[in-house]
Amino acid sequence: MTPHVIEPDPQAGAAVKAADRAHVFHSWSAQGLIDPLAVAGAEGSYFWDYDGNRYLDFTSGLVYTNIGYQHPKVVAAIQEQAGKLTTFAPAFAIDVRSEAARLIAERTPGDLDKIFFTNGGAEAVENAVRMARLHTGRTKVLSAYRSYHGATSTAINLTGDPRRWASDNGSAGVVRFWAPFLYRSPFYATTEAEESARALQHLEDTIAFEGPATIAAIILETVPGTAGIMTPPPGYLAGVREICDKYGIVFVLDEVMAGFGRTGKWFAAEHFDVVPDLMTFAKGVNSGYVPLGGVAINAEIAATFDKRPYPGGLTYSGHPLACAAAVATIQVMEDEKVVENAAHIGETVLGPGLRELAERHPSVGEVRGMGVFWALDLVKNRETREPLVPYNAAGEANAPMAAFGAAAKKNGLWPFVNMNRTHAVPACNVSEAEAKEGLAALDAALTVADEHIA
Predict the structure, then answer these.
(1) Angle CA(23)–CA(27)–CA(32) in degrees, nearest 5?
(2) How sure is the predictor about 69, in pLDDT bands with cuts at 50, 70 and 90?
């Protein structure tokens, strides 16, 4: 792809910003305290503003542009579909919807062969939980602290980070537990084996005290994303699978962020040789070009609704434009070996490069991840592992991370910053040169973080 020639137009940028501030209500924000960047365009791994500043996007949007921005084959597929059939109700069989479902089912593990389409990840979680509750006749759902499952009613109650607090509802039937995270172990473990075993015992104890016969499902992000990219230790997910089988609990894996190449496999579950009963997806399924998500359903749960109507649906379920984007995206990922590239970049560039940065920057406490899905845990003190900023810090308390983020942007990198972490999550088709460019910008920004260590 030929690099786009950036022509600054500050006047147009000012107009875009003015209209945004006058009329757009932004998510997760105090409206009077934000200053959104006016974006003029994007291409591949980069985007730029109206002043001519170009940024390497190490966020992939919100970890969804897995094939980068404006891939010409996907853009062309959307245009072609728009000329053929822009939209049609979900009750009908539409060729592009059927093909998208077939391609997804071919890549999901095990017998997750039926696809229920949604508009995004939160709706996928909503419907996965509804299916589990109806299938089992139970109501409770277990989810982990340090998790994010979406902002709709059930999904936000399942979420384990502070964004849940304002919408928490004690009658929602959600019980939270601690998932493994060795670096900040809630189980006082010192090895991965200890962490896995103790986390599994904690989960089974929680089930025992909640009443196994009351629990419909356990939902986990295969690799937690926004919460910190904590790769589960060997044996943990397999252990959860065994516990679910023991008590007749539906095992739901949330692959909204980790799926479609992000970890160097089509789905992160492949790394752990685990097959859930339900799997949610969105984001990378079509690189976010048109909103799309869904639930992959196993044969047993699908059979529950063979003669019994499923009481759920969405006007835009399996929207033709979104499905056309998914078909084209999956084909691009196959043809251009995007999944293989994500694995290669993680093994040979990002992983080694981030670990090398950790050796030189005392503010880096831990490096963790796989594929193009990495996190740097920034700390005040490596020995105590005290986070660089407090949990859920804001304002002056968050100043060290704000300074780090500003330094990254000054060096042409748009960083993913959450609490005391920065995540390295570029497009799955990021080149070696682009990944190294990102590492160089992180190197410079981390010198600012280093100024705040104890």
Answers:
(1) 55
(2) very high
Three-state SS for 191?
Answer: coil
Nearest to 174 by CA among 209, 213, 144: 144
Q: Does the predicted TM-score (pTM) go above 0.90?
A: yes
CA dist 372 and 225 (Å) reads 12
Do 446 and 357 contact (CB within 8 A), yes or no? Answer: yes
Q: What gap in Å lies between CA 54 and CA 7, rounded to an integer?
A: 11
User: In sequence order, which ranges of 57-137 are alpha helices (DSSP H)?
Assistant: 60-63, 72-84, 95-107, 121-136
CA distance 67 to 62: 13
Length of the chain: 454
Predicted pLDDT of residue 253: 98
d(CA 337, CA 356): 27
CB 59 within 8 A of CB 53: no
In degrees rounded to 5, what are phi and psi of residue 292? -160, 140
Residue 233, SS3?
coil
Q: Are 49 and 39 in contact (CB under 8 A)?
A: yes
What is the tens place of the pLDDT at every residue in 263-284? 999 999 999 999 999 999 999 9
DSSP 8-state code for residue 262: T
Instruction: Give, for 278, the enclosing helix (H) or strand (E).
Output: strand 278-281
Tokens of 30: 């105090």
Give the pair of three-digit tokens for residue 454. Answer: 């104890």
